[in-house]
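Please fill in the sequence for the structure shown.

STRUCTURE ENCODING:
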């Protein structure tokens, strides 16, 4: 199959369904077709496979698609000037259909390896006719119907209705009978003219007739050759008396070679080729083609289907079959098919063997004189075609790069709408529900203070590259990045019901990715905090230079606020996002209510874990880092509490305060409710407290509050320290006050 048919189908798919559908078809069929040449041959089944896949993708019947392809093909070939060939086939639709089988004959020089179908007409009447269609290809029945109806409408202003009467397979040939209904005024006019015409009775000697056609054959009803031309008998001396099927193969039309079929197809061109070559010699082209087929067996889809072509060493005859009533026989008026002098040398013919009344001699001589120029032009055309194909491949690669870059900046859906000519203002859209995610690096300002600018850029690039790879497995859109802040959205611009779960799953992957990035100064793992919120937003294109797809609304502000109040390696969500999640899938921890935007109080949650279908918690890499971080925080808290406890114990030791009456009031603790001073000789003495004792000492004693400890062991240790301090206080108190000495 030549690429002209494929070209038309590809252009129709691109124009009607878009470049995206064609790229999907190429990817599914594994086609490496950056450009299709009209004069190159491709696989016989490729066209039908493309149509079937398109029908599956668009959910359309393949018969309707093939009919559309046939209709649009008639318009497409006008680019090559073939519409003029269709116009000159006849005065009306009847003439076109009677000469339809010969249409491909006029194009055999442009497409020498063409395998055309066969058509013939029968049962004509004033309201239409019956058309027989035979082809070695399967699946093109509705394609032919579309072509015929469009030719009738476009060129002959005739509305043709086509019905399929029968369709059957005859060996490797598809035979379809069509019933065409149209106003067949030409048939009515010819029938009237035939009745009124006067027949002329002119006799001619058969020898004179045979001399005019040196390659003729007279065939009996048994298909026996009873007479042959002089030039033909020179090549086959014993041809008379032989059956035509024993010497020749019927190339076209595609029919069974018998008497009745030949009579029915008297309006068709008959082409025969000899069964045996006139001069046996190897053909270099055959060897090259066979080698190429052996080397490229894996590319049968894009290569020509193998079949035996009729080469120059075989004699080829082309002509018309006419039934002669007086002879009760069929005469075949033929001429040999000779493209150049080499063909004549290979078949053993000479110029004087050809008849003078036709153009066979002129074609052979003119073809020989122009063969060198044509060969040079053909070689140049092939080089140009190859260069053009290479350029198309490069252009296609660059276009893919451009599209990829554009789709990274703007969502594909929005970019395609901009390409189609829509204005940016018309792309503004309201989304009733979506989920926004914000994240930033904990302590990023402190980290940057100890790094060079290049190291900061390197860390951010590594972090964002890992995040971007996570996006490939989630239905999320990356809105923008500002410094260490990373903003995502799900449900925009493609609406989705599970946008909340998509964002949470993406957040877990981000946490797993961030713990693989380290600070080069101390090799500590970076940590991020994440905040999410669900609600309505307004989205659209902002700006002309470096345009961006931006989101606006309170949902964005709330998500940013949730991120600022989150913790390291935690996912902080609002109640609106929590309500959209599956409670059986995620483990959550409720947080205290917080105030947003100065007045709104909302309930927030930490998303802790995700469960699989069996209900087991999925262990993720970042959780090990989170456990270590909590352990370190607990140890630091213990150390800090111990230090605070020691400082408090030291402050509890208060020096004695002298009083105006000469009595020294010893310091007391909260436990010293019945304090009694102890003499050095251990004789107890009652405590003497003056009524004017300054209460400051008691205030200091009661203000010392025992610190709260995190666990029981710390509490016991603290109590033992306090007891030691109390004992030391008792030991260092004065043996006796001055008042006692005086007494």
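FILLED IN BY: designer on duty
SEQUENCE:
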């Amino acid at each position: 199959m030549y690429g002209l048919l494929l070209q038309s189908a590809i252009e129709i798919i691109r124009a009607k369904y878009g470049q995206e559908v064609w790229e999907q078809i190429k990817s599914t069929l594994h086609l490496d077709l950056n450009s299709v040449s009209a004069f190159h041959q491709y696989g016989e089944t490729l066209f039908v496979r493309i149509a079937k896949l398109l029908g599956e993708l668009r959910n359309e019947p393949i018969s309707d698609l093939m009919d559309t392809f046939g209709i649009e093909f008639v318009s497409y070939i006008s680019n090559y000037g073939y519409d003029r060939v269709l116009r000159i086939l006849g005065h009306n639709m009847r003439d076109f259909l009677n000469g339809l089988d010969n249409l491909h004959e006029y194009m055999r020089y442009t497409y020498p390896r063409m395998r055309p179908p066969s058509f013939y007409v029968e049962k004509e009447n004033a309201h239409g006719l019956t058309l027989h269609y035979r082809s070695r290809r399967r699946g093109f029945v509705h394609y032919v119907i579309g072509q015929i109806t469009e030719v009738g409408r476009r060129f002959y202003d005739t509305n043709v209705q086509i019905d399929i009467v029968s369709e059957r397979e005859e060996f490797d040939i598809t035979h379809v009978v069509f019933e065409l209904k149209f106003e067949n005024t030409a048939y009515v006019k010819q029938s009237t003219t035939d009745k009124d015409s006067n027949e002329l009775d002119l006799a001619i000697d058969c020898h004179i007739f045979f001399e005019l056609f040196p390659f003729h054959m007279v065939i009996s009803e048994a298909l026996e050759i009873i007479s042959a031309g002089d030039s033909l008998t020179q090549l086959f001396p014993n041809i008379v008396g032989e059956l035509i099927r024993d010497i020749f193969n019927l190339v076209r039309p595609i029919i069974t070679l018998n008497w009745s079929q030949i009579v029915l197809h008297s309006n068709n061109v008959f082409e025969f080729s000899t069964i045996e070559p006139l001069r046996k010699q190897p053909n270099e082209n055959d060897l090259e083609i066979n080698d190429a087929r052996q080397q490229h067996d894996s590319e049968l889809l894009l290569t020509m289907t193998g079949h035996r072509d009729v080469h120059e060493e075989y004699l080829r005859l082309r002509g018309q079959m006419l039934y002669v009533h007086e002879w009760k026989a069929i005469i075949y008026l033929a001429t040999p098919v000779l493209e150049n002098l080499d063909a004549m040398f290979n078949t053993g013919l000479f110029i004087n063997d050809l008849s003078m009344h036709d153009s066979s001699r002129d074609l052979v001589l003119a073809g020989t004189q122009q063969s060198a120029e044509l060969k040079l032009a053909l070689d140049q055309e092939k080089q140009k075609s190859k260069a053009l194909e290479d350029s198309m491949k490069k252009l296609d690669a660059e276009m893919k790069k451009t599209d990829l870059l554009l789709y990274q900046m703007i969502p594909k859906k929005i970019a395609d709408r901009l390409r189609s000519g829509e204005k940016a203002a018309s792309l503004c859209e309201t989304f009733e529900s979506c989920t926004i995610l914000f994240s930033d690096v904990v302590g990023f300002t402190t980290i940057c203070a100890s790094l060079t600018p290049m190291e900061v850029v390197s860390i951010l690039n590594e972090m964002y590259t890992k995040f971007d790879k996570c996006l490939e497995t989630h239905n999320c859109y990356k809105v923008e990045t500002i410094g260490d802040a990373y903003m995502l959205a799900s449900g925009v611009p493609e609406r989705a019901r599970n946008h909340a779960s998509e964002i949470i799953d993406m957040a877990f992957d981000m946490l797993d990715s961030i713990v693989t990035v380290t600070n080069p100064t101390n090799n500590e793992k970076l940590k991020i905090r994440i905040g999410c919120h669900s609600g309505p937003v307004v989205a659209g294109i902002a700006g002309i230079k470096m345009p961006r797809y931006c989101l606006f609304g309170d949902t964005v502000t709330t998500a940013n606020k949730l991120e600022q109040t989150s913790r390291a390696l935690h996912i902080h969500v609002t109640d609106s996002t929590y309500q959209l999640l599956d409670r059986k899938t995620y483990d959550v921890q409720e947080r205290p209510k917080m105030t947003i935007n100065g007045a709104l109080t909302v309930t927030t949650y930490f998303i802790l874990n995700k469960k699989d279908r069996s209900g087991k918690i999925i262990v993720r890499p970042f959780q090990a880092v989170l456990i270590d971080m909590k352990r370190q925080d607990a140890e630091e808290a213990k150390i800090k509490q111990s230090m605070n406890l020691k400082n408090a114990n030291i402050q509890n030791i208060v020096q004695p305060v002298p009083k105006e009456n000469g009595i020294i009031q010893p310091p007391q603790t909260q436990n010293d409710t019945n304090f009694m001073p102890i003499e050095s000789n251990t004789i107890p003495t009652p405590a003497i407290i003056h009524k004017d004792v300054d209460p400051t000492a008691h205030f200091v004693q009661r203000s010392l509050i025992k610190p709260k400890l995190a666990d029981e062991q710390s509490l016991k240790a603290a109590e033992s320290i306090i007891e030691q301090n109390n004992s030391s206080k008792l030991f260092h108190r004065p043996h006796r006050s001055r008042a006692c000495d005086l007494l």
